[in-house]
Design brief:
Chain lengths: 247, 96
């Protein structure tokens, strides 16, 4: 069976994590599946402007940066009950289809299999969401680089929706087509759906198993290699700069 | 450009929200900025879309044709979002 590298970065500063994320995509050290949990932070999508999308005067105690993929803000409160994942793989076969939506569907399948394991009615909602009973529980973002794809996403275990609404400027156009009166009706998280708090490490292990099953690979724990560490160091100033975040 | 002083056009495509900010000079686009949670590959082609729109007459037809031209030249893919969606957002900003 093919072996892929697995890394759990644990609780991280998102500026460091976004630099490592880009380095894993671009350093060419092989297919990798990784986890992290962000400290209190906001990550803007590539095409989002901070002053438009955020109520900046309410974001002063958040670390803010931008990622290299599109999509919407990834908000993390200080409860730190979010599993974030990354997949880097070569687009060369059925595992990572060339078609963008098909490749989202393939990777999101890992999350769906995990949620089904916990008895939930999980489904893929194109283009890039995973839902439980039509409520979003996971957002995902993908980019591509020289024949490889990077997909990042989050599985919400707990979520402070009121805090997200307080710090962001989400217009009604965002959710009106989903036939809901507010974002509150369109989001959910694992703790709420299950009525109990699952241990985060246990949920990660289920995700790892489901990943191995779906991709028919064995995950081997590893760490960043020298080329990735060097690339990360050279990328860090970008993720810490206001030119990148507030452009 | 000063976004806080510019009217906003909002349009939701299947691929995400597109918010446009546009200023005009003699009926042509002078400054333009976009913010949104859509996806577009390659990502940095968004700056070419915006750059190429400067000087374009502020009509739906001219704007859409201009964006389509950049899409073709740069081989842009944007799942769930089309040049017509960007045009719609920009037109809403102009009509705001």
């Amino acid at each position: 069976m093919e072996e892929w590298r697995f890394i759990d970065f644990g609780l991280v500063d998102i500026r460091d994590m976004m630099a490592m994320d880009e380095a894993i995509l671009k350093a060419d050290e092989g297919n990798t599946f990784f986890f992290w949990t962000p400290k209190k932070s906001i990550i803007l999508g590539y095409f989002q402007k901070a002053e438009v999308e955020l109520n900046l005067s309410r974001c002063r105690d958040y670390v803010i940066t931008r990622r290299i993929s599109g999509g919407g803000i990834a908000f993390s409160d200080d409860r730190c009950r979010q599993i974030n994942y990354g997949v880097v793989g070569t687009i060369d076969n059925d595992l990572f289809p060339l078609d963008i939506i098909e490749s989202y569907k393939q990777v999101c399948g890992v999350l769906i299999d995990t949620l089904i394991h916990y008895g939930m009615n999980a489904a893929f909602r194109p283009i890039n969401d995973v839902t439980v009973d039509n409520k979003k529980i996971s957002g995902n973002a993908q980019t591509r680089w020289e024949g490889k794809l990077l997909q990042n996403g989050t599985l919400l275990l707990d979520f402070d929706i009121e805090e997200m609404l307080r710090i962001s400027n989400i217009p009604k156009e965002k959710f009106l087509d989903k036939k809901i009166a507010s974002i509150r009706e369109g989001l959910t998280w694992l703790d709420r759906e299950l009525g109990v708090q699952r241990d985060m490490e246990e949920v990660k292990n289920v995700m790892k198993e489901k990943f191995e099953e779906r991709f028919n690979v064995k995950l081997i724990s590893g760490s960043l290699r020298r080329s990735e560490i060097e690339l990360t160091s050279s990328l860090l100033p970008k993720y810490y700069s206001s030119e990148w975040t507030y452009r | 450009m000063e976004i806080s002083k510019t009217k906003q056009g909002i349009h939701k495509s299947r691929g995400g929200l597109i918010r446009s900010f546009v200023t005009l000079e003699n009926g042509k686009i002078k400054e333009i900025t976009i913010s949104g949670d859509f996806f577009l590959f390659p990502e940095d082609a968004v700056f070419l879309i915006l750059e190429n729109l400067k000087g374009t007459p502020a009509s739906r037809e001219s704007i859409q044709k201009n964006i389509e031209g950049t899409y073709e030249k740069e081989n842009i893919q944007s799942p769930g979002t089309s040049p017509a969606d960007f045009t719609e957002s920009i037109m809403k900003a102009l009509e705001a």
